[in-house]
Structures are given as structure tokens and as C-alpha cells.
Fold this sequence. Notes:
The chain is an alpha+beta fold. It has 6 helices and 9 strands; from the N terminus they run E-E-H-E-H-H-E-H-E-H-E-E-E-E-H.
Amino acid sequence: MPEEGKKAPLFCLRGIDKDGVEAEFSLAKLLKEGRPMILYFYPKDNTPGCTTEACDFRDNMNRLTGIATVVGVSRDSIASHLKFREQHGLNFILLTDPDHKVMEAYGAWGEKTSYGKTTEGVIRSTYIIGTDGKVKKQMLNVKAKGHVDRVLEEMGKL
Length: 158
């Protein structure tokens, strides 16, 4: 798990851009756009909490455009991401990490407890990565509802 102030783990994953075009995305390429990145990990497309979180990003894109690139990552397939994007009008990058290697590198994969049951899976997490490639803020076990307000608050402190 990367620590705040340390370099973010590099990645290269397939996904879709804000327009639904499939491509390969890397941390280095995304940071070349000259904006910090909000990299968030979520469990599954089209589930209640994940939809709430994604729609929160969608609805606040006017507050985020120009100050950060939003990237969501789950284990879901490209086809699932396309359907998720279409159903909810999502307007940011969605990446697929089917073998959860990137999630593991970021500490977003592991043991978690839900409704009293312990399982292994995606830990809802968000990282703010600066243009220098360093982790500026890590937010672990985040709550989906109102998450973007908390992210923007943290970005304001940087």
C-alpha cells in the first residue's frame, strides 16, 4: 500500500474513456494531462453503493473538471463498464483490473467485514495522486454517499 508522500504504484490497464471508447490507460499517460488524479477503487458495477458513488462523481464533474482526472477501477469487464456507463450517463474513465493486481498494489484488495461476514475482495478506497506521481491523500474504507464532497475537501487542503 502506498503511503502519502510516496510514489504511487505504476499501472497499465484496459478500460473506457469518458466517451466509452476502449483503450489502454497508464498512470504515467494520465498524469501527463497535467492534472492530479482521483483514483478510486470500487467493488462492482451496478450495485447500490457503487452506483451511488459513481453517480456522485458524475453529478460533480463540473466541480472536478480542470482540477483532476477521475478514474474508477473495479474487477468488472469492459462490457460491464460500458453498460454501467450507458445506464447512468457516467462521464469519466473506468478501468478493469480482473486479477486485482493493481488493487493489491494500492491496498484496495484484502479482507473486509460486511454484515458480520468476513470475505476477501475490493476495499472501497480513493487515492489523490499529484502530477508528480506521488500519493497526496489516501482514503480507505470510504462511504459511497457524499464521497465526492470529502474528496474535494481533501483536495482543497493540498
